[in-house]
Design goal:
25% helix, 31% strand, 2 domains, elongated, 11 strands, Alpha-Beta Plaits, 5-stranded antiparallel beta sheet, alpha+beta, Structural Genomics Hypothetical 15.5 Kd Protein In mrcA-pckA Intergenic Region, Chain A
Length: 199
């Protein structure tokens, strides 16, 4: 856990968890890893994610990849974080490395989005996924029922789950989205969907 907490804070946290019989929980925290490039190329979210996946790391051991002041960071389970520091060498066409770190003061993730404006029959999850991912209704329903879809960071397997304004949807293989609104109604009775895709 080096670089996440001071020794004093880590020991205090470990003692508190031990008192509740949950000492193993400390190792469940996600660790921030600073993704360092040469600065020669401007690497995107896709570049970094591709380089991490090429290491054979399971996607579920990683949290979000985000940017702050032009620097990239990824949150990872401790073992994955250590593996990244040892094995990450290239992203895109650039030489890179990973360093377990403390987040810089004032850290607020910077995100870029692609705007999505379309219509759906209703705010059912399968219909929203179909529209966001531009796939068939059957493929969208299969993505949900097979556990490839998260609604507000929890797996959702019910195609008829209702999506609300502000919900966050992640679909494995397609991306992560914020649903801004499904409130407007067209003349044909369809819901106007406005959303943003993380890029």
């Amino acid at each position: 856990m080096t670089g996440i907490f001071s020794d004093e804070h880590e020991n205090a946290l470990r003692e508190a968890l031990e008192a509740y019989g949950a000492s193993d929980m400390l190792d469940e925290f996600y660790v921030p890893v600073h993704l360092v490039s040469s600065g020669y190329l401007q690497l995107t979210h896709r570049d970094w994610l591709g380089s991490l996946m090429s290491l054979g790391i399971k996607r579920e051991t990683l949290g979000d990849i985000c940017f702050f002041s032009g620097e990239a960071y990824v949150f990872a389970e401790p073992k994955a974080a250590e593996y990244i520091t040892l094995e990450l060498k290239r992203a895109g066409r650039d030489k890179v490395k990973g360093e377990i770190c403390k987040l810089p003061e004032g850290f607020v993730p910077e995100t870029d989005f692609e705007e999505i404006n379309t219509t759906v029959a209703s705010p059912r999850l399968d219909g929203i996924v179909r529209a966001l991912c531009n796939i068939s209704r059957d493929d969208a329903s299969e993505s949900v029922t097979s556990g490839l879809c998260e609604l507000n960071y929890f797996m959702e397997t019910k195609p008829d789950a209702q999506v609300k304004n502000g919900d966050v949807i992640s679909v494995r293989g397609y991306g992560k989205y914020i649903v801004d609104s499904t409130d407007g109604i067209t003349k044909k009775g369809r819901c106007r969907l406005t959303a943003r895709k993380y890029i």
